[in-house]
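User: I'm curious whether this sequence folds into something compact or stays loose and floppy. Could you predict its structure so I can see for myself?
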Amino acid sequence: MTTQDSMRDKSHSVVERLTHAFGDWLKHRRELNEMRQLNTSEFDRIASDLRVSPADLNELVRLGPHAADELPKLLNALGIDGDDLARIEPLVLHDMERVCALCEHKRECDLDLAAGVSAERYQGYCTNALTIEQLGYQANK
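Assistant: Here's the prediction. I'll summarize afterward.
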């Protein structure tokens, strides 16, 4: 492969990533617009069906579909099988995803995940730390 081919591949991947990011942004804007068109009772019913408060649902939709992307990575770093958790404790996982999505420590979590030090540091900031400890305790029984 020539240097020119390599540069073309890199620029193509950058353009492709930007195109996907823009498409995701547009889709998210449409979702926000659809949500704003719901009346209060419809919105409250949907929140109830999802077992979240209307305020949390509003915030979760605003944050978008990738707001809890850190959770499966953290669970994996801790040796917790997310698929098993989803099968055995789906409501616990659902709540953990909500908590993760609403977390205010994303930057710290992302940095620790990238550095591979999450297992040693998450307890200092993770709002799911207590639940994770309880899951670990149950796994050791």
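Summary: DSSP finds nine helices and no strands in the chain. The CA atoms of residues 2 and 96 lie 47 Å apart.
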